[in-house]
Design a protein that fits this description.
Elements (H helix, E strand, L loop, with lengths): L4 H5 L47 H14 L6 H8 L48 H12 L3 H21 L8 E2 L6 H7 L3 H13 L2 E2 L3 E3 L10 H8 L3 E3 L17
Parallel strand pairs: 1-2
Antiparallel strand pairs: 3-4
Helix pairs in contact: 4-5, 5-7
The structure holds zinc ion (ZN).
């Protein structure tokens, strides 16, 4: 195709952008009644853009709301334990019979110096750790702030420790039944949580065994502030076998905490 050198050197001015002559003319319309698609239509204002949130702030803010305003119940036991550097006790750190903390070679299957001469109502103890520090805080939080999540997590960890002990001793999970130490109905209603029932349920899941609420407990004054001997006197005779706790075939019925 040929090109005009003069036109290339002096390009024609661009066509005016003003309104062009139009025929036939558009009918007159009062202002504000323009038809959709007409040249003088003013587009409707765009909806306001959503407020921009700075990255990270909502998550931090929500965590503050959960932990400071709602309470510690939103935190997990796993995160609290990790922050505190807490780990469950290995079997060598406590007496396998009474659960007391011991040093190396201070305990064997027959017990330790604290329990060898004593008759105990159980033959074997498994623990997560001494009742102190973050573990104590978590137990108390689960019990008194209805922190269901921590009860389930503590139960799961305890169940893992029991499962290890059962494996070492060659006990099949099918032969095991987890029974929680019950809370009195009055106290459970006041607290809004059956913390031992929740822990037992989670522990039985970890072990792969059954659980059942086979005991009931009469209401007694609180144990706080009592010495060890006074505590034993306070709860003496308060536990009874639950009528109908075992269903047909000796299978445990579902307890109130399940
Ligand atoms: Zn012992």
């Amino acid at each position: 195709m040929a090109t005009d050198p003069a036109a290339a050197a002096n390009p024609a001015p661009p066509p005016p952008t003003a309104e062009r002559f139009r025929w036939p003319p558009l009918p007159f319309e009062p202002a504000g009644t323009s038809r959709p698609g007409s040249a003088d239509e003013i587009p409707p204002p765009a909806p306001p853009a959503p407020p921009q949130r700075r990255a990270g702030v909502p998550a931090r803010l929500w965590r503050v709301i959960e932990e400071e305003w709602i309470g510690v119940g939103s935190r997990s036991w796993a995160s609290a334990a990790e922050e505190a550097g807490w780990l469950p006790d290995g079997a060598a750190l406590y007496c396998p019979r009474c659960g007391t903390s011991v040093g190396a070679f201070e305990a064997d299957a027959a017990g330790c110096s604290a329990c060898r001469e004593r008759r105990l109502p159980w033959s074997r103890a498994v623990r997560l750790g001494p009742y102190e520090g973050p573990l104590r805080d978590a137990v108390l939080a689960g019990k008194y702030t209805a922190w269901k999540r921590v009860c389930l997590e503590l139960g799961r960890d305890l169940g893992d420790a029991v499962a290890d002990a059962l494996r070492i001793e060659g006990v099949a999970p099918e032969a095991v039944l987890v029974c929680p130490v019950p809370t009195s109905l009055r106290r459970r209603l006041a607290r809004g949580i059956d913390h031992t029932g929740l822990m037992a349920r989670a522990a039985s899941r970890s072990i792969g065994c059954r659980s059942g609420s086979l005991l009931r407990r009469a209401h007694r004054p609180p144990q706080q502030g009592l010495s060890g001997e006074a505590r034993r006197r306070n709860v003496a005779g308060s536990f009874r076998a639950r009528a109908g706790g075992l269903g047909p075939g000796g299978r445990p019925r579902r307890g109130p905490g399940r």
